[in-house]
Amino acid sequence: MPQQDRAYATREAILHAAAEEFDQHGYERTSLTAVLARAGLTKGAFYFHFPSKDAVAGALVERQNELWAELRESWRARGADPLSALHGMFAESADRMAADVVLRAGVRLNAEREVGYPGVPNTHVMWEKLIATYVAEAGERGDLLPGVDPEAVARTLCSAALGARLISSATTACADFPKRIREVLAHVLPCVASSRWKLSGSQKTPEGPDGP
Amino acid sequence: MPQQDRAYATREAILHAAAEEFDQHGYERTSLTAVLARAGLTKGAFYFHFPSKDAVAGALVERQNELWAELRESWRARGADPLSALHGMFAESADRMAADVVLRAGVRLNAEREVGYPGVPNTHVMWEKLIATYVAEAGERGDLLPGVDPEAVARTLCSAALGARLISSATTACADFPKRIREVLAHVLPCVASSRWKLSGSQKTPEGPDGP
Predict the structure, then answer these.
(1) How large is the ipTM?
(2) Residues of A in contact with B167 (CB under 8 A)
(3) Mind listing the pLDDT tens digit of every residue in chain A (212 residues)?
(4) What is the CATH topology of the domain spanning B57-200?
(5) CB proximity A154 to B under 8 Å
(6) In Å, how far are A58, A130, A186, B119 from A172, measured between CA atoms?
(7) What fold characterizes domain A54-200?
(8) Is B38 within 8 Å of B101 (Cβ atoms)?
């Protein structure tokens, strides 16, 4: 294997091993020693790729951000209406997180940062704004019931998605996150969508790996 | 002040000072020294009341449980229908938490335990079961739309309430929690309630301290 590929493979092995440890034990209680043992690597190999445990954690959080950028682009490319895109992105992100420990670890690390350091760089506000733009766009198209406040819908969806992933993580290691996120969507979107949107049928998102 | 009252006052002073510290810094980064400095007490006074930092944290979590027991009893005594009682309990608990650092600290400590120790004594499952009994009872009375699954509603409400309090805590020190929890209720309950319940008008809960 060329040297560049080998370096890439080692970096991925570190990320995967660290993700397994962070996912199970959280940031504070994950030791570099355990990560190295799991990856079968030396400290030297580790420090060639990452300056610290914090740097690996940062890379894992970054993966999660990349996932969302990818999902946004994918649903834009499909030409989905805004509410259907929201439904699809929430559902797909849950499917991917349930299946991939690297994404899941990013979620947990983010959650720990959010709980542990209130006030610090706040991703919630950013997320709520992003989701609100989709809902507002739906309103402009006539896909919302009269009087629906896009920002309130965004706050409700972001709260429910955060809570769903934390509870799912704490109770089933995220196995039921796909089901939980679809329940959230099914209990909120019909409350705010106009019959025009509901009748269009465009909101159909494939069921999760385990069905509805 | 009689000795018993003084002991009670000291215990409350410790709880309050610890709540302020936990609320701001979380469990791990709160030191006993900071708690004592805030309360103006010696280590001896502290250890007379609590064997450890963990014991104070446990007492604060217990306060939150007592709040819910009290709210349940209060809404039962009012003879509210189950959905109205749910609405009232969620809204009132948010009002009380926003106003009282002792309750807020309990919430944060609980959240940290939940995030930090997945699998360990799980309060989520207990909460979801409790909320589901209210929703199921509403169904038996004809207050739900046909086909509504009480457990799915309970999971959605618990997720959204947990997420709302974490986001509110991280962004506004819980100041907007009363508003956020009412938004959640307004975006979920009308989705599942029958027109019989909606027309009964019994779901009216007083607005939070800051209005709707």
Answers:
(1) 0.84
(2) 124, 128, 155, 158-159, 162
(3) 677 788 899 999 999 999 999 988 888 889 999 999 999 999 999 999 999 999 999 999 899 889 999 999 999 999 999 999 999 999 999 999 999 999 988 877 876 766 555 444 567 888 899 999 999 999 999 999 999 999 999 999 999 998 998 888 878 888 999 999 999 999 999 889 999 888 876 555 555 544 44
(4) Tetracycline Repressor; domain 2 (1.10.357)
(5) no
(6) 25, 28, 21, 8
(7) Tetracycline Repressor; domain 2 (1.10.357)
(8) no
